[in-house]
Amino acid sequence: xxxxxxxxxxxxxxxxxAVAERLAKAAGADIxxxxxxxxxxxxxVDWRDPNSRSSVEHQHxxxxxxxxxxxxxxxxxxxxxxxxxWWETAPRVVRTFLESEDWSGxxxxxFATSGSSIRxxxxxxxxxxxxxxHWIAGRRLAANVKESxxxxxxxxxxx
Length: 159
Ligand SMILES: Cc1cc2nc3c(=O)[nH]c(=O)nc-3n(C[C@H](O)[C@H](O)[C@H](O)COP(=O)(O)O)c2cc1C
Known about the structure:
Layout: E1 5-9, H1 15-27, E2 30-33, H2 53-59, E3 78-84, H3 92-100, E4 107-113, E5 134-140, H4 147-157
Parallel strand pairs: 1-2, 1-3, 3-4, 4-5
Helix pairs in contact: 1-4
The protein binds flavin mononucleotide.
Domain Flavodoxin-like: 5-159
Protein name: Flavodoxin
Pfam families: Flavodoxin_4 (PF12682)
């Protein structure tokens, strides 16, 4: 029997959302958005402003922005977790999600979009937020990645 796959993603400005939608099609997966209780405004994601919300969250590793709703991962074997790279790591709200769930018996594969960075896309930095999961190293995906390339990637993961 095939694995039951869920694609989850956080996206502040839509790039990761568009990639996640293509990935879900390629993987034959369901899709769920990681939605922060308080949405990120343009001012919140101003990385040039050291006092912006994203900058402050980055400076404080322990911050865990609340979720608008939980995501039920129990029916799934494999969960893709997608996010934009913020300073070469995942936004803190992704950790809120990871730390809210029971990952025993589940496989996590990350994917990330970015301006150009690759570091942080493999998900290694996040392992401590879901130590019970079986982690497969993820990758950066270009904003315009084609479904055929995603097909190949998913097939190569040997899930
Ligand atoms: C706060 C912040 C920090 C970022 N840091 C990086 C970075 O370190 N490297 C990079 O290549 N892009 C960086 N970016 C660009 C985003 O990763 C990129 O625009 C991403 O595709 C946005 O995804 P989204 O539209 O799903 O939110 C940053 C963007 C923001 C808002």
